[in-house]
Amino acid sequence: MSIEDDLARIAEQQKALVFDTFGLDEAWRLGSLLRAWSVERGHAVAIDVRFSTMPAFYAALPGSIPDNENWIRRKRNLVLRMFQSSYAIGRKLELQGATVEAKYGLSSADYTPHGGSFPITVKGGGVIGAATVSGLVQRDDHELVVEALAHMTGVDLAGIRLP
């Protein structure tokens, strides 16, 4: 699985995982779905769903650590600034041999290109927020969020899963 293959698939994910509408009820359902699946799978994660700067859902599961909240904040900041998944940005930077500091002039204290945050996009409205998970390895954080977004948007996960 090359970086280029990942980037092509993540671009497909971002095109496919678009909501017709998304409000507080949908945010709660998304967060609750991520939480239920994480409990079922034994994941020690923290989960965050928010509209730009307005929190809509947050949960920290047993085994997660206080630092997961800081990782969520930093991943989410990058998504809300760049309108792309944090994993996509991280893979692009890896391919270029660059950092968020060198490429974008962003402080790593506030922005991190680690997988797990994905833009919440609405048809005709663009990116309105982000769904973020922290606690697994970054690719798995990313895949968990994508799986939940695919479930909620009715997109076939098999067609967009990372290789």
Please tell me about this protein's structure.
- The protein is α+β, with helices and mostly antiparallel strands.
- The protein is built from 6 helices and 5 strands, in the order αβαββαααββα.
- Strands 1-4-5-2-3 form a 5-stranded mixed beta sheet, with helices on both faces.
- Helix 1 runs antiparallel to helix 4 (86-96).
- The mean pLDDT is 97.
- Bin the helical content: 40-55%
The mean pLDDT is 97
The SS-based structural class is alpha+beta
Number of domains: 1
- Work out the number of β strands: 5
> Uncertain regions: pLDDT < 50 for 5+ in a row?
none
Shape: globular
Task: Write the topology of this structure.
Layout lengths: L2 H14 L1 E2 L4 H18 L4 E6 L2 E7 L6 H16 L3 H11 L3 H5 L12 E6 L3 E9 L3 H16 L10
Parallel strand pairs: 1-4
Antiparallel strand pairs: 2-3, 2-5, 4-5
Helix pairs in contact: 1-4
